Automatic annotation (TrEMBL):
EC number assigned by the record: 2.7.7.60
Site (Positions MEP for the nucleophilic attack): 153, 209
Gene3D superfamilies in the cross-refs: Spore Coat Polysaccharide Biosynthesis Protein SpsA, Chain A (3.90.550.10)
A single MF term (Gene Ontology): 2-C-methyl-D-erythritol 4-phosphate cytidylyltransferase activity
Keyword line: Isoprene biosynthesis, Nucleotidyltransferase, Transferase
Biological process (GO), any one: isopentenyl diphosphate biosynthetic process, methylerythritol 4-phosphate pathway
Family designation: Belongs to the IspD/TarI cytidylyltransferase family. IspD subfamily.
PROSITE patterns tied to this protein: ISPD (PS01295)
Signal peptide bounds: none
Top-level taxon in the UniProt lineage: Bacteria
Name recorded for this polypeptide: 2-C-methyl-D-erythritol 4-phosphate cytidylyltransferase
Residues the record marks as site: Transition state stabilizer: 15, 22
Cross-referenced Pfam families: IspD (PF01128)
Amino acid sequence: MAYEVIIPAAGQGKRMGAGKNKLLLELNDVPVLIHTLRVFEQDPQCEGMILAISPEDEESFRKLLKQYKIQKVSKLVYGGKERQHSVYNGLEEAAGTDDVILVHDGARPFIDIKLIHELVEVAKEYGAAVVAVPVKDTIKRVHHNEVVETVDRSSLWAIQTPQAFRISVLKEAHMRAQETDFLGTDEASLVERLPYPVKIVEGSYDNIKLTTKEDLYFAEAILRKTKGEK
């Protein structure tokens, strides 16, 4: 089933401390962004990628797309002040009317094509679906550095991307958020306010988001493991 994907890529990644967009950092001599884009480039069901970028990165990104022969990036749009605004700018450029559109973090290079297809199918049927994994750690609620309670983790899931939606659903969610000045932590949090059911598709613990320098070590290990499986 065909889909488009919006990839927010405008953040500066301050927690990474790289002094530049973290998506330009390299894993095995290839920029993180290219690792991510290659997944969708190689998926025949992906009809287009929309990158939300910052103006200062535009030249670098265009060079990378040409160098690595990434053909499916259909649009480059400028990101907004927050991720939510960047996604909305990308959504405005989507080609479909009520097809499925994905939103995926540029800093999650280990998403699996088979999982993407499952996610798209669920979103097409129900309107909204997200990739997630069950929480493994003990979770405690803390106030002023003091444990208040231990939270039952049996119903807790760590939400990842991609997140998939029928375009009409995501547009309605963004319109409602704008009307009420609501800023969500992800796209699903906007859809939940409609209210609208958001289905879970169980993902992989390898689908990490590269946020801090330590994450790069884990990413290199995942790359080595992936190569060993081929």
